[in-house]
Amino acid sequence: MPGIMQQIIQHLVNNRVYLEEEYGREVLKDINSIVDALERLKMELNRDRQFQLFRGNEPDKAEWNAFISELPKLKRTYFRACWLHAECYIYRRIYSFFENSKLLNGYDYFADLKREDLEISERAMNALTLATRGLPKNYEAFSKLMRINLWSNHYEIQLNAFVFSQDENRSKNHHENETTIDVLAQVADLDRNLLIDDSILIWNCLIKSKALCKDDVIVDLICDNGGFEFFTDMLLMEYLIDNGLATKVRLHVKAIPWYISDLTRNDVEWTINFLINHPSEMLSNLGRKWHKLMKDRKILVAPESYFWTGPQSYFVMVDSNLELYKLLSTAKLCIFKGDLNYRKLLGDYIWDSTEEFITCLRGFRPANICAMRTVKCEVVCGLPEGKADQLLKTDPQWMISSAYGLIQYTDALKCGCGLIGGTSTECSIHSIGRNSHCVMRLHKNKGT
């Protein structure tokens, strides 16, 4: 974190001239003030100081201050707090310096890094765009797209190498056909590290929802990174819309710059414009198609929520942000992307690696849930008996290497009981240990 703060300081110093051109000379006062605040924060971190309450114009300061105040006193310092609380707090404090400045409120100091990630991925984007045009509506195509999306950070490197090595003397049609087949087939090479793959359950969930639902079939994507990863997110969401697996996709993005590469609303707009204006006709056409999907509100950015940049685990959402929970409850499927979302789903606890996913969610079930992440921390669940021990022997760093991935799913188990012969039915779902069961309370018209 001190290194990241130093990078932000260096970014402000390096871009001082450009910022002055955009905001005027008065912005130099803001820059100096923010740099001083970042240096103080670095000192507080290095000396393991107490978390400070937020006292500025932060829209979520009441929630943050309540959370900090409720922490045990010994858990309010950087080294003694759990990782999730400490690191989220630091990122939130960093943005508060900009938020409370006169001219740089709303400035994204990570934007250049996210944009560069997409700009250097031209070959990978061309290959994937070509490979995903006109995919059939079947599980095989869907599962390959899911896996491409999961491995996007690693897959980009392989795609760049693959496209570069193609024989340019091949005929155009032959080259296109072979690229389409081979690019998708390469995903299978990564499957040796896919520890859990519930993609068939996700496919069945979407097929069933489309068949049973007369209203909109909504999919919520709780996004992770911008750049190339968001590009692959959009390929998957486009496939859902094109094939009628979803009638609407809502993108949940971060309200503020977060964890360097996390997606914001501005990143979504920049990505679409970048593609529209790209010299590649194929990418430009893709950008225009995505722009139309967003204009028609088939893919849209959900209302921004500061809950996604809070320190809380997701099982408290129903108490701390009921409106967001209700919004997610209108979806048929919620896809949570990335390692941080996974940690928050599981409360950042080190569960037994064999514990079931549904148990670890501790009642957080607004809708059917899918989690997609590469393993970057010790928080994991749902593995077969003995798998963690086997991995530890063959690869002691397996839990932090990001070389392994998970696609996990659990359904909401919402009972569609309805009215049965003059008896009104209420159904509540309980998850106890490894078993889930539906408890039905039957109430007669007169009395209980």
TrEMBL record:
GO terms for cellular component: nucleus. It catalyses: L-glutamyl-[protein] + S-adenosyl-L-methionine = [protein]-L-glutamate 5-O-methyl ester + S-adenosyl-L-homocysteine; beta-D-fructose 6-phosphate = dihydroxyacetone + D-glyceraldehyde 3-phosphate; beta-D-fructose 1-phosphate + H2O = D-fructose + phosphate. GO terms for molecular function: fructose 6-phosphate aldolase activity; fructose-1-phosphatase activity; metal ion binding; protein-glutamate O-methyltransferase activity; pyrophosphatase activity. Its EC number is 2.1.1.-, 3.1.3.-. Keywords: Hydrolase, Manganese, Metal-binding, Methyltransferase, Nickel, Transferase. Belongs to the damage-control phosphatase family. Sugar phosphate phosphatase III subfamily. This is Sugar phosphate phosphatase. It comes from Drosophila willistoni (Fruit fly). The lineage of its organism: Eukaryota, Metazoa, Ecdysozoa, Arthropoda, Hexapoda. The gene is Dwil\GK18252.
